Amino acid sequence: MSPQSETAALVDALREHLARRRIEQGFRTLEAARSRIGRIGPGMPGSGVLLGLLAQWVDAGYAGPELLRGPLDCFPPGSRSALPLSEYLHVRMTEGVLAMFEEDFERAESHFRFIQSLEGEIADPELLAIATFWTGRCLRKTGRYDDAVSYTAKGETLALASGYGEMAAIMQMSRSWLAFQQSRLSEALALLRRAEAALSCTDDFLNRGNVQSAYGRIARRQGRYEQALECSVFFVVQRQMVGHCIFHCSPHGEAVLQHNLEYSLDHG
Domains in the chain: how many in total? Predict the structure, then answer.
């Protein structure tokens, strides 16, 4: 297999594992590909797309944003005009992810909106779904809840249209949080139940735990304190499973676990 074909196969595997929320398989794939990740740059065909998928995995809890900075520096703005469109858009996606980690949500939003502006030219529904969903996240982080609902729902629709129910579950969780913030508790619960069902056969213990945490918040808001306590217990169990998965499949387990803890606080 040629180096270009190997990169394409790696990209396909990472995209599918992420969309299906196969977290341990994704982590193992990333660990096995560390040397290839270290060679990301314009001289390696397909590496722009690989960088974009790596950024999505970092957002999902793998390693941390520092893993992205070195490879991104290999694509200075003045050199990007020579990149194929798909690679250029994934580089912009990576810039948006780093801007989110830096809490510069307006800058992040501009990167994601640029990707959406080329919707008619993108043959990558997963990229479009994520960019739309992340636009919604940026809007939520800056308090524009009504717009956030619209973009998050559109991202969910795009994910479902691509057959990625597990990916859509992450967006349903965000919609549930928005509904909770606006005191629409019945809607929040309905969305959480859909997300819980979609994630039940995955090893995405981080988000399965976040579902239980959200159930607990709603129960406390409704005065159902015993059920809220039960949800807290389930949340702790899921968190323990996150730690087991990380230490079992990654030699960088301690750093990855710390990033997961920070991720959970930020995305909960």
Answer: 1
